[in-house]
Amino acid sequence: MLTANFSRFVLIPLFVLNMGAILITLQMKKKTRPEFSGNLNKLFVVENIIGLGCAIALSYIAFFVK
Q: At what angle do helices 38-64 and 12-31 cross, to 10 degrees?
């Protein structure tokens, strides 16, 4: 698959879905008590790592792939 197609059809939708999941997790964290939010914190960290990976891949494709 070409790099432009990969970024258009895989990375950008994954990035958008990940940002939506982060917003939903933040809303859930507001509604739960602090003693029960341990698993949500782990989920939030994993979502941030996935978002960071997508952002790095998109920026690499945008700047270094011709």
A: 160
